């Protein structure tokens, strides 16, 4: 298994998901090959929960990284878990049409593109 997929699976171990018990990991590869990980972090108010994908993007951006290649997302589901709508918008705005690789702990994978997940996206070009 590639280091990116392994990192996404390992990132699930840090998930803070006491309410849903649904643990998600993310691993974002930047343009230099460095990997930035994230996990979902839930909150008792529920609405303040943040997804693994956004944690990974914001961690990387907060360290000055602005160019990305690929994102791996892990969850323990047979039908592989895709990013939620809010994360799709964030990914389009900050990562562009990168490759998204879904993975589960049994090594099942599926590769998608952000453009297909968020057709006709709203972005800064409309402002
Ligand atoms: N979640 C993610 O972290 N990423 C996704 O792509 C789907 C959903 C989280 C949010 C929440 O903590 C839990 O999974 C259940 O929705």
Q: How would you characterize the overall build of this protein?
A:
By secondary structure, the protein is of the alpha+beta class. The protein has one domain: Cytidine Deaminase, domain 2, CATH 3.40.140. 28% of the residues lie in helices and 24% in strands. The protein has helices at 3-11, 52-62, 85-95, 114-117; strands at 24-30, 35-39, 68-75, 99-103, 109-113. The protein has a five-stranded mixed β-sheet. The site of tetrahydrodeoxyuridine has 15 residues, from α2. Tetrahydrodeoxyuridine is lined by residues 17, 20, 22, 24, 40, 42, 49, 51-53, 73, 81, 83-84, 87.
Low-confidence stretches: none
Overall outline:
globular
Mean pLDDT: 98
Number of strands: 5
Order of strands, main sheet, comes to 2-1-3-4-5
Helix content: 25-40%
How many structural domains can be distinguished in the coordinates?
1
Question: Topology of this structure?
Answer:
Layout: H1 3-11, E1 24-30, E2 35-39, H2 52-62, E3 68-75, H3 85-95, E4 99-103, E5 109-113, H4 114-117
Parallel strand pairs: 3-4
Antiparallel strand pairs: 1-2, 1-3, 4-5
This protein binds tetrahydrodeoxyuridine.
Tetrahydrodeoxyuridine binds next to helix 2.
């Amino acid at each position: 298994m590639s280091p990116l997929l392994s990192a996404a699976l390992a990132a699930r171990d840090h998930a803070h998901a006491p309410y849903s018990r649904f643990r998600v990991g993310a691993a974002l590869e930047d343009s230099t090959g460095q990997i930035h990980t994230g996990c979902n972090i839930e909150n008792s108010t529920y609405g303040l929960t943040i997804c693994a994908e956004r944690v990974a993007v914001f961690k990387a951006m907060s360290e000055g990284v602005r160019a990305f290649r690929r994102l791996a997302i892990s969850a323990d589901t047979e039908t592989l878990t895709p990013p939620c709508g809010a994360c799709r918008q964030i990914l389009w705005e900050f990562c562009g049409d990168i490759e998204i690789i879904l993975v589960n702990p049994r090594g099942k994978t599926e590769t998608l593109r952000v453009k297909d997940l968020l057709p006709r996206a709203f972005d800064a070009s409309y402002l």
